Amino acid sequence: MSNPEITVRLATAADAAAIAEIYNREVAESTATFDLVPRSVEAQREWIADRSGAFAAIVGVDPATRRVVSFAALSPYKERAAYRTTVENSIYVHRDVAGRGVGRQVLTHLLDVARASGFHSVIARIEASSQASRALHAACGFELVGIEREVGRKFNRWLDVAVMQHLL
Ligand SMILES: CC(C)(COP(=O)(O)OP(=O)(O)OC[C@H]1O[C@@H](n2cnc3c(N)ncnc32)[C@H](O)[C@@H]1OP(=O)(O)O)[C@@H](O)C(=O)NCCC(=O)NCCS
Description:
single chain, alpha+beta, Aminopeptidase, seven-stranded mixed sheet, 4 helices, 7 strands, binds coenzyme A
């Protein structure tokens, strides 16, 4: 697969296993997620079911193979009512196809969804050493707001979080 045009659609329960496979590799091997325990397919199905309406989960599909190669989602930023125009995003790309423009296509689509849903501000919370994620978000118009120091711990080391924001 070289620089594929990705089809992007809403995630369905049938995507749970493919999404869990992408996610669980990052749980086990990287600090991209601060989860420490892999997600079961059942838990992944519930995660998808929780994301409907404005808080959408989408998948990127390689049209040639129909394989889910990426997923992304919008989640509530904070509970208090005045935060309701802000949303937090996440995005993951299967390592087999990383660095080929898939992330940029899927994140661009996710921002369109956020805009269409009326959100004003999108926040990404990124483990600060992740150059790929910071570059992807910068390429899609996010700007660095600040760094939270040593707020996480995984693989026996402290983790900083880079907070990046896109005003829609
Ligand atoms: C971060 C991630 C989503 C990027 O997706 P991707 O499909 O590899 O990214 P793209 O190929 O679309 O690249 C997007 C931009 O980031 C840059 N980029 C991608 N990987 C990079 C890397 N390793 N180092 C530096 N820049 C990188 C690209 O040059 C591109 O910029 P450009 O369009 O201006 O040339 C993917 O690597 C991933 O899933 N990583 C693990 C999970 C993760 O970190 N998720 C983010 C949690 S907040």
